[in-house]
Design goal:
Blueprint (H helix, E strand, L loop, with lengths): L12 H10 L4 H6 L9 H10 L3 H8 L9 H34 L5 E2 L3 H8 L10 E4 L5 H11 L2 E3 L9 H4 L2 E6 L4 E6 L12 H6 L2 E2 L8 E2 L2 H14 L5 H10 L6 H10 L3 H15 L15 H15 L10 H13 L3 H9 L6 H6 L10 H19 L1
Parallel strand pairs: 2-5
Antiparallel strand pairs: 1-2, 3-4, 4-5, 6-7
Length: 393
């Protein structure tokens, strides 16, 4: 039962069909009717399947659907993508297990955030979820040790983070490595989310960790309530622009979540409305059942409004991971991110503008022992850059 009704008028019919296919509760309707498949742009359908990373689930459903409803070449493309992803997931599983074992031997605590472990936990089959890289969380105090270990293994660090006065510790939340021979991208997180928001400490997350059943050597990952917290924060931060993240929510709510504990966690870090947004979207788009325990998260108009705002990303098939992001999309996303914040989070976010940025050091280079001067100088340096930009334009 859907507790909220969203305006889906401008959602493309190709995406509507995709949703109908992956909603297992609606399977019979798709199998018996040609209505949804008429006048479909199958090229756009395939583009959406790839963009939303839903082809593993589509492949599973196509096997039990009447073949005449879907063109054979579409089924073939989806199946090829599924096979390629399965091999990639097996490859990443082996690398994840090797890294976990190596970190353990070097006394570095490691929590896997996504990847094959998440696929096994939520879907019971690592081939049913896509994954392009490995995301792991380590204590911030171990980053230097981790860096040396990974470089020794042959990983190359992407040094894209510019920083001044150690603002990287809270403005950013991960650094990226890539192994050129193994073709593995690895994200080392020291926070679940970029700052300045509050979140559970690594020690808290470690205390509530679980052990994956996917590998023979121990691989640790987030406790169920912590995983829900992470998934809704991550999905919301990206505008739920890929359905895969919303399908993860649909899967995790089927598990035995301690809703009292989860609601307390979301309230503590002021993400209750963000959890509500995820549930409203999942309920509306995927027919995710809303139980009595979950109703507190969707109470009031705020979660519904946030969910409606996220439909923009589905209407436009927004890709926030490919630069340059169109100006109108970037402006919308900036506003949406701000609307996701609680009043306290908005206050700290606005106050964070007073903290020096790397651009200040570029505008006026100073010796490191004088970097504290960027605090009083920041308003003037910001005004100078804006004025100069305006003159140049």
């Amino acid at each position: 039962m859907n507790y909220c009704s969203l305006d889906l008028e401008y959602v493309p019919k190709e995406l509507r069909l995709l949703l109908q296919v992956i909603k297992r509760e609606n399977g019979d309707k798709v199998h018996k009717s040609m209505e949804l498949t008429s006048a479909i742009d199958w090229g756009l359908f395939l583009a959406m399947a790839m963009h939303h990373r839903t082809y593993p689930l589509l492949n599973a459903e196509f096997k039990i659907m009447e073949n005449e409803l879907i063109p054979p070449y579409v089924i073939q493309v989806i199946n090829q993508a599924y096979k390629k992803n399965t091999f990639l997931m097996l490859h990443l599983s082996a690398e994840m297990e090797q890294l976990s074992k190596l970190f353990y031997e070097n006394q570095i605590r490691l929590l896997v955030l996504k990847g094959p472990v998440l696929a096994e936990d939520l879907y019971g089959d690592l081939s049913l979820r896509t994954c392009g890289d490995l995301d792991v969380l380590v204590p911030i105090s171990e980053l230097e040790k981790v860096d040396k270990l990974l470089l020794k293994l042959g990983y190359k660090k992407d040094d894209y983070i510019q920083t001044v006065l150690n603002d990287w510790r809270w403005r950013h939340h991960h650094v990226t490595y890539f192994h050129p021979q193994k073709k593995v991208k690895l994200e080392i997180h020291w926070r679940l989310n970029p700052g300045p928001g509050k979140e559970p400490s690594f020690n808290e997350l470690w205390e509530r960790k679980r052990i994956s059943s996917l590998t023979s050597d121990p691989v640790y990952y987030l406790g169920r309530e912590d995983l829900f917290f992470f998934l809704v924060c991550h999905g919301a931060r990206h505008g739920w622009s890929r359905l895969r993240w919303l399908i993860d929510i649909n899967q995790i709510v089927k598990q035995k979540i301690d809703w009292i504990k989860l609601i307390k966690l979301l309230k503590k870090y002021q993400y209750l409305h963000v959890g509500g947004q995820a549930l409203v979207l999942a309920s509306q788009l995927l027919n995710t059942p809303i139980t009595k325990e979950m109703k507190l998260l969707i109470r009031g108009n705020h979660p519904k409004q946030l969910a409606q705002d996220a439909i923009f990303y589905l209407e436009k098939m927004v890709n926030l991971h490919t630069d340059p992001v169109p100006e109108d999309v970037a402006a919308y996303h900036k506003r949406h991110l701000f609307s996701l914040m609680s009043n306290q989070q908005k206050f700290f976010f606005i106050m964070s503008f007073l903290y020096p940025y790397p651009e200040d050091a570029e505008t006026l280079p100073l010796p490191k022992h004088l970097h504290f001067l960027y605090f009083p100088l920041r308003p003037f340096l910001w005004a100078w850059r804006k004025t100069r930009k305006h003159v140049l334009s």
